[in-house]
Amino acid sequence: MQATILAAYGLVEDECNIQPFGSGLINTTWKVTCGDRSYILQRINHQVFKKPALIAQNIQNIGDHFSLHHPGYFFVMPVQTLDNKGLVITENGEYFRLQPFVSDSVSYDVVMSEDLAFEAARQFGKFTRLLSAIDINTIQVTLPDFHNLTLRYEQFEQAVINGNPERIKESAALIQAIRRYQFITATFETIKQHPGFKTRVMHHDTKINNVLFDKAGNGLCVIDLDTVMPGYFISDFGDMMRTYLSPANEEEADFSKIEAREPYFKAIVDGYLGELKEELSHEEIRHMIYAGQFMVYMQCIRFLTDYLNNDAYYGAKYEKHNLVRAGNQLTLLDRITEKEAEFFQAVAMHGSSVA
Ligand code: GN1
Ligand code: MG
Where does the Aminoglycoside phosphotransferase domain start and stop, copy by copy (predicted)? Predict the structure, then answer.
């Protein structure tokens, strides 16, 4: 399988070292080293991304925009096949993409300093800012309804009816807790109608390992562009809150380790607003804390829905894996909600009125 794929790029499998790489849940990733050249090879999960060609279209479009309008921006363009078949190729019904491995770059799985949080937030803010002049209608929706909380909530209630009965019983407390936070879905409904909320080019997966840094800790670029599509800023800012605020990540089973750290919140506010303050409306800035609630709540719902549906989407490394992940995210939601007042202060200190 890989031999044919690599051959399409003029690489010979026997001359390459191929190692599994990274920790994504959806796509499969390898690092391919052939002599002094290294690449990242990815198999795109076709069950999830039904139209991988749209991903290639977006990456091409965005890459062209950068090279035309922001030539200094460091953008990792996937490699073309020898016969110019495109940036995503198909083999036996599976989809692959190859891109150069950025040498001397570093990536992190854990946000271990405020500087790192600041720098990552700056990179995601810069990405959206530099793409603000692009015609949003030319950006394809690669995953319809990806961050449609209304639909995610409906799917959750469906799973509470049709899911695995034993798991439903076992999840009773969590189901109740999710229903108590329903205002988060209601607020999303108002956001969709509000003229102050703009659709922009958003990354939709802003965890720390989707930023490449140089050895000195400066951000180089953002990677993993499959879910780049039109969206609201709450997706990116919220996913940073979801994944940078707590010292323990979504896999942690000891919920007492989950925190919403204020200095880290301040760091991502500073990094993000430093790039996007002029772009964001008053109404959007007022929803910066909501952004975290929105993303953490949606992830909690997605994990629990998957648990009730026998782990069909995320899979499970142990028996109650997705139940634990859902409980973890609910705890993080509690921690963020408790900090609301302090977090509002941090946004206000940036000179932005949040009244
Ligand atoms: C998935 O595959 P990965 O780790 O980049 C998921 C995200 C979730 C994340 C939770 C397409 O991302 O939405 O936040 O898992 N991506 C998709 O770890 O569903
Ligand atoms: Mg991803």
Answer: 18-248
CA of 329 from ligand 1 middle (Å) equals: 14
* Whether 118 and 197 share a structural domain: yes
Q: How far apart are CA 123 and CA 94, in angstroms?
A: 31
- Is residue 38 within 8 A of residue 107, CB to CB? The reply is no
The Cα–Cα gap between 123 and 219 comes to 6
Q: Tell me the β-bridge partners of 33.
A: 17, 38
From the CA of 313, which ligand is nearest?
Answer: 1
pLDDT of res. 54: 95
Q: What is the pTM of this model?
A: 0.94
Closest Cα to atom 17, ligand 1: which residue?
26
The answer, yes or no, to whether ipTM is higher than 0.85 is yes
Report the separation in Å between the CA atom of 42 and the middle of ligand 2, taken as the mean of its atom positions: 11
Domain limits at 80?
Answer: 2-100
Q: Which atom of ligand 1 is nearest to the CA of 25?
A: 2
Q: Is ligand 1 within 6 A of the CB of residue 316?
A: no
151 lines ligand 1 (CB under 6 A): no
Enumerate residues 6+ apart whose C-beta is below 8 A from 25. 314, 315
Q: Give the rounded percent of residues in the chain with a pLDDT score beyond 90.
A: 91
184/296 same-domain check: yes
Residues 203 and 293 in one domain: yes
Question: Which residue is closest in CA terms to ligand 1's atom 4?
Answer: 24
Assess if residue 109 is contained within a domain: no
* Residue that the structure tokens 């803010």 belong to: 125
Q: Which of 141, 205, 303, 307 to mutate to test the pocket of ligand 1 (most atoms within 8 A of CB)?
A: 205
3 lines ligand 1 (CB under 6 A): no
- Assess if residue 175 is contained within a domain: yes
Nearest-CA residue for atom 1 of ligand 1: 25
How many folded domains does the chain comprise? 2
Tell which residue, 271, 295, 91, 82, has the closest CA to residue 184: 295
Whose CA is closest to atom 15 on ligand 1?
25
pLDDT tens, residue by residue, 79-135? 999 988 888 888 888 999 999 999 889 999 889 999 999 999 999 999 999 999 999
